[in-house]
């Protein structure tokens, strides 16, 4: 009977061990407190989630930035990474609109302290747009109302003319034409040497019409100036009008006898060089 009772007692002990109620002195297959620890851990995790939710709600009420899901998981003590949003449910951000720079109106540079008044006027003149290097149809207008005195304007015209001569002698005809045109604009078309030299450049470039306007302007400003009269003779000789060419040549020799010397070596007058009138004008000065 003792063997049967021992077997029954062991079977009862095994059943009690499975239920978590092992008898004293009996060793159960599982620790008695394992299920309780799991319940406590689950309750602690739930409490952490509740605390994290309350914290997020408080931050949303006061208008602060809500942390990311990863930060919430760190606060709650969970180790599971946040689920990534699917490509279908993801909403793309709106395209960034480039900022347009504010439009400002360019203003002239402020003059330096102690700069003389004449330098300021030259600076204002330099900022004015330069016209094209051709004579204007109908002549030049009256002198522009620049803030210069007559003496200052005369000095500027002389300076522009001298720079134009230097550019012309060095072969920079484009720059020379610009400087001559600027001198004419400052003087209101009243500088005969600039008009004459501008016409010479235009004649060399085959611009007969505008060259004739420049020579006519120079003759109108200074009727006793022989150079534009002589150049007008060259212009008509190149155009094939020998009659007008000889008339202007005769007038030029009358204003300045040196024009006969110019005519002997000038290829622009080759078309009339064999005429008796030309030989008479040139030979008369050789006697």
Give a verbal description of the structure.
The chain contains twelve helices and no strands. Helix 5 (150-169) runs parallel beside helix 7 and helix 8 runs antiparallel to helix 9. Among the domains are: 148-223, Tetratricopeptide repeat domain (Serine Threonine Protein Phosphatase 5, Tetratricopeptide repeat, Alpha Horseshoe); 224-287, no CATH class. The chain has helices spanning 2-19, 34-61, 69-76, 117-126, 150-169, 173-187, 192-204, 208-221, 226-239, 242-255, 258-264, 276-284. It is 59% helix and 0% strand. The protein is mostly helical and 287 residues long.
Structure summary:
The chain is mainly α and 287 residues long.
CATH topology-level name of the domain at 148-223: Serine Threonine Protein Phosphatase 5, Tetratricopeptide repeat
Cα-atom radius of gyration: 53 Å
Residue windows where pLDDT falls under 50 for at least 5 positions? 22-32, 84-89, 104-139
Structural class from helices and strands? Answer: mainly alpha
CA(first)-CA(last) distance = 178 Å
Mean pLDDT over all positions: 73
The total count of strands amounts to 0
Order of secondary-structure elements? HHHHHHHHHHHH
Write down the overall geometry: rod-shaped
Helix content: 55-70%
Largest sheet: none
Number of contiguous helices: 12
Strand content: under 5%
CATH architecture of the domain at 148-223: Alpha Horseshoe
CATH superfamily of the domain at 148-223: Tetratricopeptide repeat domain
Say what oligomer this is: single chain
Q: Regarding CATH, which class of the domain at 148-223?
A: Mainly Alpha
């Amino acid at each position: 009977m003792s063997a049967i009772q021992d077997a029954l007692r062991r079977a009862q002990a095994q059943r009690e061990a499975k239920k978590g109620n092992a008898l004293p002195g009996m060793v159960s297959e599982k620790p008695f407190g394992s299920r309780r620890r799991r319940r406590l851990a689950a309750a602690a995790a739930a409490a952490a989630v509740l605390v994290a939710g309350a914290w997020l709600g408080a931050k949303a009420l006061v208008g602060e930035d809500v942390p990311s899901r990863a930060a919430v998981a760190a606060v709650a003590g969970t180790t599971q990474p946040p689920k990534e949003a699917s490509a279908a449910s993801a909403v793309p951000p709106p395209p960034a609109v480039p900022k347009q720079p504010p439009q400002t109106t360019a203003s002239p540079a402020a003059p330096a302290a102690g700069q003389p008044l004449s330098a300021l006027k030259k600076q204002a003149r330099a900022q004015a747009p330069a016209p094209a290097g051709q004579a204007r149809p109908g002549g030049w207008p009256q002198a522009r109302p620049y803030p210069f005195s007559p003496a200052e304007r005369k000095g500027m015209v002389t300076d522009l003319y001298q720079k134009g001569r230097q550019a012309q002698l060095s072969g920079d005809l484009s720059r020379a034409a610009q400087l001559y045109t600027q001198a004419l604009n400052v003087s209101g078309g009243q500088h005969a040497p600039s008009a004459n030299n501008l016409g010479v450049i235009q004649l060399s470039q085959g611009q007969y019409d505008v060259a004739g306007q420049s020579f006519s302007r120079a003759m109108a400003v200074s009727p006793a100036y022989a150079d534009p009269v002589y150049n007008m003779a060259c212009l008509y000789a190149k155009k094939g009008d020998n009659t007008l060419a000889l008339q202007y040549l005769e007038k030029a020799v009358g204003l300045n006898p040196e024009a006969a010397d110019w005519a002997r070596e000038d290829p622009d007058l080759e078309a009339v060089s064999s005429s008796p009138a030309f030989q008479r004008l040139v030979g008369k000065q050789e006697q």
